[in-house]
Amino acid sequence: MPDRKKIVFIIPTMEGGGAERTVSNLLRYLDRDKFRLSLVLYEKKVQYDIPADVKIFSLGVSPSPNFFIKAYNYALRIVKIAATLKNIKPDTVVSFLTDVNISTILAGFLSLSKSRLVISERNRIAAVYNIGYQKIKKFFVRFLYRYADKIIAVSEDISGELTGCGIDRGKITVIHNMADCKNIAVLSGDKITETNVFDGNAPVIVTAGSLTKQKNHALLLKAFKLVLEKMDAELLILGEGPLLAELESRARALQIENKVTFAGFQKNPFKYISRSAIFVLSSLWEGFPNVLPEAFACGTPVICVDCGNICRELVKDGVNGFIVPGHDSKLLAESIIRLLEDRVLLKELAGGAVAAAGEYDIEKGISRYEEALF
Asked: What topology does CATH give the domain 181-359?
């Protein structure tokens, strides 16, 4: 099939995360009659399954906390991306995450690449890049993104913010994150052997996401303390990240550590989410949280702190979950308690969650990506 388009995806690693899950889905489901796929990683760290026909290129450049090494590595990555693109000669390059998008555009200049460039922007520009040195990224977004052939935004909010940065609206396509509903249904039935959190009679509250400031797990811990003052429950936190030790310390300070389980990154989070009573998203901001459609596909009602239009778009208050106004631990706790106490309402919202999942099914998303990549 010589007319297949050669597509290269670029992302730092394939460790746990929403962008990484999207790349994993694309690598699995893009039509092999149309595309030949390669993957370029900053480091060969892989937690998701990669199909055997996908060739992986590792730049071998690790992150560093040292400012000067970090600056050197940034430049080195650009040079190595440029060299890799010269070697592969792809028809289309698809980059994920803002830093990678900027580096890939600069590498394209350096390599004189003729490849079509598609970049995926998944972050709220206004929320993330308006503080301190992050403003530099906003400058690069304004100046460099116009050189991309197409920009895939994961929400209308992000599309609007990109347009506000002077990006031509005609270059932007909105494609929501996807939920592999059929696969999630299968994986949800897998046996749990890693934790005994589901062995008792207490309902389990679950969340999933990187342990970073953005996800605001501290708010959830504070709210969970208030829940335990009213009723028995368990809190299961899936994900890993730099704030693990700090969050464990907070749980101890709140004297709830024996009711909170930090389970780390789980390749199959769905077996936990599907068995939980409620999924909680406590983020300060989100571009498009993959985990909400995935929770819907698990039939798990969602309680979401109001972190922007995208959460209000995904979560229909009183239909498939609740939206908590503001980052208020008391209001969050009250919503959790209300659902756990009202089993009829919990069941109704679970049905609403399953109905909502179909809007984000992977078949629709893959079809839209294939259109964007041609």
From this structure: Rossmann fold (3.40.50)
Q: Say what the pTM is.
A: 0.83
Which among 105, 145, 104, 94 is positioned nearest to 369, based on CA atoms? Answer: 94
Whether 10 and 93 have beta carbons less than 8 Å apart is answered as: yes
Report the DSSP pairing between strands 92-96 and 116-121: parallel
Q: Which tokens belong to 329?
A: 């631990």
pLDDT digits (tens, 9 = 90+) for 148-198: 999 999 988 889 889 988 899 999 999 998 899 999 999 999 999 889 999
Specify the DSSP class assigned to residue 306. Answer: -
What is the rounded CA–CA span in Å between residue 172 and residue 224? 40
Q: How far apart are the first and last CA of the chain?
A: 16
Measured between alpha carbons, how far is 116 from 108 in angstroms, rounded to an integer?
Answer: 10
Q: From CA 265, how far away is CA 246, in angstroms rounded? A: 17
Number of H helices, E strands in the chain: 15, 13
User: CATH 3.40.50.2000 occupies which residues in the chain?
Assistant: 5-174, 181-359
Q: What is the mean pLDDT of the chain?
A: 92
Confidence band, pLDDT 50/70/90 cuts, at residue 256: very high
Cα-based torsion angle of the residue sequence 216, 221, 222, 223 in order, rounded to the nearest 10 degrees: 100
| The residue type at 148 | A
The tokens for 285 are 């901001």
Determine whether 319 is exposed, middle or buried from the number of CB atoms within 10 Å of its CB (0-12, 13-18, 19+): middle
What does the DSSP 8-state code read for residue 179? Answer: B
- Rounded to 10°, the helix 362-373/18-29 angle is 80
CA distance 172 to 121: 10
Question: What DSSP assignment string belongs to 314-356?
Answer: H--BTTTEEEESSS-HHHHHHHHHHHHH-HHHHHHHHHHHHHH
Hey, how many other C-beta atoms are within 10 angstroms of the C-beta on 21? 21
CATH fold for domain 5-174: Rossmann fold (3.40.50)
pLDDT tens for 261-303 read 999 999 899 999 999 999 999 999 888 888 999 999 999 999 9
> In which element (H, E) is residue 270 found?
helix 270-273
Per-residue pLDDT tens digits for 92-103: 999 999 999 999
